[in-house]
Amino acid sequence: MKKQFAFLCTLLLVCSNLIHAQKSSNKPPNIIVIFSDDHTQQTISAYGKSLMQTPNIDRIANEGMIAKNTFVTNSICAPSRAVLLTGKYNHINGLKDNGPRRFFDGNQQQVQKLLKQKEYQTAWIGKWHLQTLPSGFDFFRILPDQGQYFQPNFINMPNDTTSYKGYTTNLITEFSTNWLDKRDTSKPFFLVVGEKATHRNWMPDVEDLGAFDNIDFPYPANFMDTYNGREAARLQDMTVDKTMVLQDDLKINVNWDKVGPGMFARLDPTQKAAYKKYYTEISKQYESVKNDSAALLKFKFERYLKDYLATAKSLDRGIGNILDYLAKNKLDQNTVVIYASDQGFYMGEHGWFDKRFMYEESLRTPFVMRYPGQIKPGTQLQEMIVNIDFAPTILNIAGIQTPSDMQGKSFLPLVAKTTPAAKKSFAATWRKSMYYHYYEYPQPHHVAPHFGVRTTRYKLIRFYGPHNNLELFDLQKDPTEMNNLINDPSYASIITELKKELKDLMVHYQDLDALAIWNTTESTMQDMPK
Ligand code: SGN
Ligand code: CA
């Protein structure tokens, strides 16, 4: 009780100091959230060992902060966006998967609506992916559904669809800076730039075709995973080897002169000529490996990475253009810039592309933030951040208290200017474990639903639906999550602790469906995966 009281006092003190700091400069800062699609930490140089350089994302991190341990509640697009808007888990905000339940109730409380009460002008431009149109924004121009890479359609307010000439990433940047040009400069703004890159089918901008062709990418250590002791991992359908589609994904042997409906049909004649030239050469390489299964697999893996990274290159360039715009228009000092993605992605780890699993690569998401005057350049945050914290943090920046029904917490006190003692005492109260729940099954990638808990060292996952089993990983000893330790007697007490922690989290976040599954089957289920 005493501990809780001390925590509450620290929290109030730290938050009110931050709010006070903002009041004294009378206008709260502008906030831009650049929110990409499937862009994973393994491909961002600010995160260390990376498959490519991302100078502009790094610029945000270097001039501000990087959150090293940021996780999502449900590693998939529309649900993650619903979490960003509401600061709540999907069983509370109602949007659990990308399927028929992609309906989002726009009448509920959302971050932009709360910011509007503080006079913010608000806009969402780019990928949105919720079935219902945005509400509570002063302006939106969104891609319908997944959107297209070339000559994309956008839905304009109130509900008109128009096609625009150009490459999606460039158009989204252009529409964003156009909106900034026209805004009411007497008010602060909140702008979400919803990027389409780096989503499947990874169509690079023409200028980036072949940008990574001189690099030989080795397989990740667990590319040849045989999924021993991990049944759900074995039964997924998202491998580079078997699931990746030669023509649609890797652009091999496409008849460029007669492309039917689909992504390639949207290329204009100049773009099509560039694609034809480039991928005809790639198709020749395919011909030379297609009868050698090992060489073919390496070819597929390399082509996947090269196209993905090329779309990331245009994404990073677009972010640079937004940063340059802010500097040129003297907005850089009073604008908070956040870069994050809706989830992480597999770059061949476990043999996969896509996301969904609670394993590290897709559970994590990048998060960097620049907040001049409040966050010291080069700040590194190690605490566990979850995407339910994004909305409360944004509100905190604007000087707004987190509503009591939001499930996340502002982590601004962990990174913003306060005394080291206040920071330390706040950090002591921060979460030591996070809760995850994934739902979508079976389409499109046959990943069984699951929920679980991750602590700094361990991860316990409970699969349900087609599989009914538990997995335990010791992330310190096994960072690539290959050894399911659920039947290892030396971990018995850890398993007991984690089971309790998982149950506590389900109760805390009111995930009653998960709790029911846990309670009805836990006593009868077999831990040993078949
Ligand atoms: C599409 C993709 C899937 C992807 C989902 C969800 N197939 O269905 O591979 O998992 O989107 O992605 S595709 O052949 O149509 O590209 S999400 O980012 O929206 O969650
Ligand atoms: Ca996504």
As laid out across the biggest beta sheet, the strand order is 7-6-5-4-8-1-9-10-2-11
Helix residue percentage: 25-40%
What is the level-2 CATH architecture name of the domain at 28-199 and 334-398? 3-Layer(aba) Sandwich
Class from secondary-structure proportions: alpha/beta
Mean pLDDT: 94
**Unreliable runs, pLDDT <50, ≥5 residues?**
5-13, 19-24
Discrete helix count: 15
Question: Which ligands accompany this protein?
Answer: 2-deoxy-6-O-sulfo-2-(sulfoamino)-alpha-D-glucopyranose, calcium ion
| Fourth-tier CATH superfamily name of the domain at 28-199 and 334-398 | Alkaline Phosphatase, subunit A
CATH class label of the domain at 28-199 and 334-398? Alpha Beta
**Beta strands, count:** 16
What percentage of the residues does DSSP assign to strands (E)?
Answer: 5-15%
Overall geometry comes to globular
Rg calc: 23 Å
Distance between the termini: 45 Å
Here the CATH topology of the domain at 28-199 and 334-398 equals Alkaline Phosphatase, subunit A
Largest sheet: 10 strands, mixed
